[in-house]
Amino acid sequence: MSSAQQITVLGATGSIGLSTLDVIARHPQRYQVFALSGFSRLAELEALCLQHRPRYAVVADAAAAAKLRGALQGAGLATEVLEGEGGLCEVAAHPDVDAVMAAIVGAAGLKPTLAAVEAGKKVLLANKEALVMSGALFMQAVRKSGSVLLPIDSEHNAIFQCLPTDYARGLNNVGVRRILLTASGGPFRQTPLGDLQHVTPEQACAHPNWSMGRKISVDSASMMNKGLELIEACWLFDSPPSKVEVVIHPQSVIHSLVDYVDGSVLAQLGNPDMRTPISHALAWPERIDSGVLPLDLFAIARLDFLPPDEQRFPCLRLARQAAEASGTAPAMLNAANEVAVAAFLERRIRFPEIASMIDAVLNAQPAQPVDSLETVLAADGSARAQAEHWLSHHGR
Ligand code: NAD
Ligand code: MG
């Protein structure tokens, strides 16, 4: 028997999934791929299976499963192919798995990520939407199962690195004054406000510093990504929204900071490459090589900081409101945003209408307290229906 840790990578064909497999491949003695999942890119998933030889692969449905099964058997691979949400939950919670990379995008990742948490796995959380939607329930499940939850989002990974190991005693009790969440400001930080009406999906997806999937790229352009991250930080570090301040830092070299009552401010720096937080979380509390180049401070030369402009980035205000309203509000915010981003990518709405749609959905229904996953899923469903309704009146 090998002593390598068995890793499930949910969302293996995506940007985070591929970066994770790149790190894993650098440490074959340490890590073995147990399961891989993919959704639409079947040929890419097949190639990843040939390279990493997982015990399981998970695809969207029966037709995709039959196709992949045939291809893998033809290549002499023993990989078992599962399908759908049930398959994802099975490989996330499988008794032989040590750690799960949760890198599916959006609400689709909620149940598989929760399955990993409930099974007490080490969970590397990239899928921020899952935590934003189900916050209190998610964190209760972490405490109940003893799951080790490690943030992959570069900002939260940075904050985790800057906090003392006993931060769970409460931020006040460990002397934290504020969390400073950095944001690049995305591709439209300096675009004249009037021109935002005309920006295209291609421009929105061309992030100045990071190469990412299309949904999070649009979220970065609208700064909804920072809004979701504000909510994510509140849950991960048990912080009120008022203690989390957003700082625009265009170079994306400082990945976030923690401000202590004695005036000390700790920051984590590095090149903008997700393999750093992925390696950190995989090996924690040890350190391993990630393939990321050393930071060249002389080449960077300067670091800039600006306050966020709420007129330019209304999504940030909407997210802060949802964080303060709590209950089902973050799930509704997330659902409306997923519908809005998809509509923008399909050119059915203009960029500034992403915020208009979310605002309309949040105003249509008051937040409810969250007592169960059913409440969260119902809020997600009704917010999606409200958003589609808005789209049928205002979209193209
Ligand atoms: P991506 O679009 O590149 O990849 C998404 C993955 O999810 C793919 O493997 C896809 O097959 C899978 N997927 C999509 N829809 C699915 C569905 N309905 N059911 C099952 N699987 C589905 O996205 P990404 O950029 O890798 O981001 C993944 C997650 O990580 C997101 O939650 C994002 O916010 C977060 N994240 C990404 C980055 C980054 O640098 N890319 C940084 C921080 C956080
Ligand atoms: Mg981030």
Automatic annotation (TrEMBL):
Positions annotated to bind NADPH? T13, G14, S15, I16, N127, E129, G213
**InterPro entries per UniProt:** DXP_reductoisomerase, DXP_reductoisomerase_C, DXP_reductoisomerase_N, DXPR_C, DXPR_C_sf, NAD(P)-bd_dom_sf
Reactions catalysed according to its record = 2-C-methyl-D-erythritol 4-phosphate + NADP(+) = 1-deoxy-D-xylulose 5-phosphate + NADPH + H(+)
For this entry, the protein name equals 1-deoxy-D-xylulose 5-phosphate reductoisomerase
Q: Where does Mn(2+) bind?
A: D153, E155, E229
What EC number(s) would the UniProt record show?
1.1.1.267
Per its UniProt record, what Pfam families does this chain match? DXP_redisom_C, DXP_reductoisom, DXPR_C
Q: Which Gene3D superfamilies match?
A: 1.10.1740.10, NAD(P)-binding Rossmann-like Domain (3.40.50.720)
Question: Does NADP show up as a keyword for this record?
Answer: yes
Name the GO terms of the biological process aspect.
isopentenyl diphosphate biosynthetic process, methylerythritol 4-phosphate pathway involved in terpenoid biosynthetic process
| Top-rank taxon, per record | Bacteria
The UniProt record gives the binding positions of 1-deoxy-D-xylulose 5-phosphate as K128, S154, E155, S184, H207, S220, N225, K226, E229
- Please report the stretch or stretches of sequence annotated as the 1-deoxy-D-xylulose 5-phosphate reductoisomerase C-terminal domain: 149-237
Give, as in the UniProt entry, the pathway in which the protein acts.
Answer: Isoprenoid biosynthesis; isopentenyl diphosphate biosynthesis via DXP pathway; isopentenyl diphosphate from 1-deoxy-D-xylulose 5-phosphate: step 1/6
Please report the organism this UniProt entry assigns to the protein: Pseudomonas turukhanskensis
**Sorted alphabetically, which keywords does the UniProt record give?**
Isoprene biosynthesis, Magnesium, Manganese, Metal-binding, NADP, Oxidoreductase
Q: Which cofactors go with this protein?
A: Mg(2+); Mn(2+)
Query: Could you say which protein family the record assigns here?
Result: Belongs to the DXR family.
Please report the stretch or stretches of sequence annotated as the 1-deoxy-D-xylulose 5-phosphate reductoisomerase N-terminal domain.
7-135
Judged by the first EC level, this protein's enzyme class is oxidoreductase
Quote the gene name from the UniProt entry: dxr
**PANTHER family, alphabetized:** 1-DEOXY-D-XYLULOSE 5-PHOSPHATE REDUCTOISOMERASE, 1-DEOXY-D-XYLULOSE 5-PHOSPHATE REDUCTOISOMERASE, CHLOROPLASTIC
Q: Which GO terms describe its molecular function?
A: 1-deoxy-D-xylulose-5-phosphate reductoisomerase activity; manganese ion binding; NADPH binding
List each copy of the DXP reductoisomerase C-terminal domain by range: 269-385
Quote the function comment for this protein. Answer: Catalyzes the NADPH-dependent rearrangement and reduction of 1-deoxy-D-xylulose-5-phosphate (DXP) to 2-C-methyl-D-erythritol 4-phosphate (MEP).
